Amino acid sequence: MEENKKILTTNQGNPVDNDQASITTQKHTMTLLSDVHTVEKLAHFDRERIPERVVHAKGSGAFGYFEVTHDVAKYTCAGFLSQVGKRTEMLARFSTVGGEKGSADTARDPRGFALKFYTDQGNYDMVGNNTPTFFIRDGIKFPDFIHTQKRNPLSNLKDADAFWDFLSLTPESIHQVTILFSDRGTPDGYRHMHGFSSHTYMWYNEKGEHVWVKWHFKTDQGIKNLTDQQATELAGTDPDYATRDLFNSIEKGDFPSWTAYVQIMKPEEADNYKFDPFDITKVWFHSDYPLIPVGKFVLNRNPQNYFNEIEQAAFSPGNFVPGIASSPDKMLQVRLFSYPDTQRHRLGTNFDQLPVNAPKCPIHNYQRDGQMNTGSQESAPNYYPNSFNGPAPDIKFTPPAIDVQGMAARHEYPLGDIDFVQAGELYSRAMSDYDRSNLISNIVGHIKNAQQRIQYRQCAIFYKAHPEYGTRVAEGLRLDINKVKSLAAMNQEDRVKATAS
Ligand code: HEM
């Protein structure tokens, strides 16, 4: 027993004699600097915190595997999808978006759904949400949108005015707002929700033929949501509700799993689809593009150390393997920049060398040095081209070319009636009476804290999505329905002027 006892050491591995009393000259006087153990212990403690993620700060994660169940090789040459039965090790992290690292798991918010596949051809990340759409469709708006979900710079309080002011000035958000304020905005833990790429990506095969795809991951546990009241209560009684649920279920061997599907659109169909297939505020109707099964993933291992493996995990929608590439979705293009940029700030230059982020295959390139480099690459040569047999690119990995010619300018998405169609269909066709009632009361319970002129502007947008939808929210807020109707009849510019003060 004694032989197996671990000796306490410094970070240099030097044995420590005492960890309960710092070294002083006499009983309880000045602590001496020669007490290097105490100094190191405090100095390390002083540096324990790293910046939390600017969004998606509160989250949980687990490891597992992805298994291919259906042959999709005709669409993509991605090695990890090449054969039925092929398994790939993976990591999943689920999160809320707007709150701080200590915020409640049950907040009304989209849930992050980030997957990292450790493939033989390097890491592939699928960084999605539990919603198939998003609030905005140009990345230039993202910092503003996120600021409205954070704290007011003056009061340091969450701000219903900012939240609804921005959304009502950004009507393309209506589809995602309708999803968020349904009970899907408060899922019952992370195991009972679906995941989506939301964005459209490119898949291409060995012949260089490409298609456009959207990922869908359906929970095998079944969808389960909390009501607004349950979510609010849990935020007080068990703010780590979803974290606990995921950890405990894996710990007791009840491994959650998701079935993976894709929707596939041929390039020639993209030009003529009734919605812009690269606009993330829209879905592709399943009746037009049915779900094609691909595989499943199972989470069967909790992290050994939360900070090392989950807090330091770095996902990026730009981590592609051959066979998968980006698409002309301008939100996605901005994301390709933002993730590794924030991770260099949050975790350091060599964040990709941390064990959780490092690919399981060798890496060879000419990037060298930087802070906290663990020297995973050979030392020479360190330039390219070279005649010393250094690693060289291979043209066979070039993704298919796509035509993106045109005039460079700040092209705005024109706001059109088409932007309200899918929210209206969701309200009137996909939702049950129960869903609709909860949607209305969830919205009213939140927007009632915003200024009335903002309530009017947003109600007009609900009305444009579906007259009953706008009417019911307006009734819940005791607004003048005729005023809502006349605002709904205006274009957005006039509506904004009419509700300016
Ligand atoms: C996290 C930026 C849109 C899903 C993050 C982070 C940033 C960011 C800076 C923190 C990353 C880190 O610290 O490691 C952006 C920008 C967007 C955008 C600029 C729009 C232009 C989206 C969309 C989705 C999404 C549309 C889903 C479809 C996620 C997820 C995480 C995340 C799941 C958490 C990843 C993790 O678990 O570590 N985003 N985001 N984001 N984002 Fe986005």
Explain what you see.
- There is one protein chain.
- This protein is α+β, with helices and mostly antiparallel strands and 501 residues long.
- Helix content is 30%, strand content 14%.
- It has 15 helices and ten strands.
- It has helices spanning 36-46, 142-149, 160-168, 174-180, 228-237, 241-251, 267-270, 306-311, 330-346, 418-430, 433-447, 452-465, 467-476, 481-489, 492-498; strands spanning 59-68, 87-95, 112-119, 122-129, 195-196, 201-204, 210-219, 257-265, 292-301, 324-325.
- Strands 1, 2, 3, 4, 5, 6, 7, 8, 9 and 10 form a ten-stranded antiparallel sheet that branches.
- It is globular and about 80 Å long.
- The N and C termini lie far apart (76 Å).
- The mean pLDDT is 96.
- The site of protoporphyrin IX containing FE (HEM) has 28 residues, from strand 2, strand 3, strand 4 and helix 9.
What ligands does this structure carry? protoporphyrin IX containing FE
Q: What characteristic shape results from the CA principal axes?
A: globular
Distance between the termini: 76 Å
**SSE run:** HEEEEHHHEEEHHEHEHEHHHHHHH
**What oligomeric state do these chains adopt?**
single chain
- In percent, how helical is the residue content? 25-40%
Mind telling me the C-alpha Rg?
26 Å
The counted number of beta strands is: 10
Structural class: alpha+beta
Mean pLDDT: 96
Number of helices: 15
Strand content: 5-15%
Give unreliable regions as ranges.
Answer: none
